[in-house]
Amino acid sequence: MPIIDDLKISTNTRAVVWEINESINDLESRLVLSEDSLKLLNQKQSKIHKVQFLAVRHLIKYLSINPQNLKYDSLGKPFFENNFKISISHSGLYAAVIISDIAVGIDIETINDRILKIKSKYLETELNYPMELNIETSLVYWNIKESIFKAVDKPGIDFKKNILVPPLDMKKNMLKSWYIDDHKIYSFDTRFKISKKYTLAYVIKN
């Protein structure tokens, strides 16, 4: 279980990233799964989805939380019954979790050029920035917007209209991002990372 990052962001906020190299049998043998979790696991068709599912529960266990406390609402959003906040992401053989007492979101994506074909579907204002939108920066913008989408937890969010991300600060790897609609404006402390194999961002609501 190689933990790549263990980020203690504040007293009650922590993010963890894991590169998965274990087998399904190895992962499952070291967990006690609830009936609901077993049902969800068995519903997953592909090996990679099963591995990701189990990896997330190992990360929760690593954070000293009983994985059986993880629940999902009717829309598939993860939550804890004690109202502690959690956001989950996985891509390929990477899994990431962030927990906090305030609204948070996290997203991880393996490096791939497919993002360049769809950037006009989730970027608008950002397309006018002077910086180059290469694979990595395009993925980071997606990471940030997906993280805010998870943190806001509101149906019908338009990534282009409702989520604004300013130009990326490639030296500090941190910035403020916003969710905006006709009634509310939320700001988020935003951090991101670009590695050789993946990009990552997480947001914390102000």
SS content category: alpha+beta
Q: What strand order characterises the main sheet?
A: 7-11-10-9-8
State the shape.
Answer: globular
Largest beta-sheet details: 5 strands, antiparallel
Strand content: 25-35%
Secondary structure tally, helices: 6
Order of helices and strands: EEHHHEEEEEHHHEEEE
Number of strands: 11
Helix content range: 25-40%
What are the segments in which pLDDT stays under 50 over at least 5 consecutive residues?
none
Written account of the structure:
With 206 residues, the protein is an alpha+beta fold. The chain has helices at residues 24-29, 35-43, 47-62, 115-122, 135-152, 159-162; strands spanning 3-10, 13-19, 70-72, 78-80, 85-91, 94-100, 104-110, 163-164, 174-180, 185-194, 198-205. It has 6 helices and 11 strands. The protein has a 5-stranded antiparallel beta sheet with strand order 7-11-10-9-8. The chain has a 4-stranded antiparallel beta sheet with strand order 1-2-6-5, sandwiched between helices. It has a two-stranded antiparallel sheet with strand order 3-4. A hairpin with a 4-residue loop joins strand 9 (174-180) and strand 10 (185-194). Helix 4 (115-122) packs across helix 5. The model has no long low-confidence stretch (mean pLDDT 94).
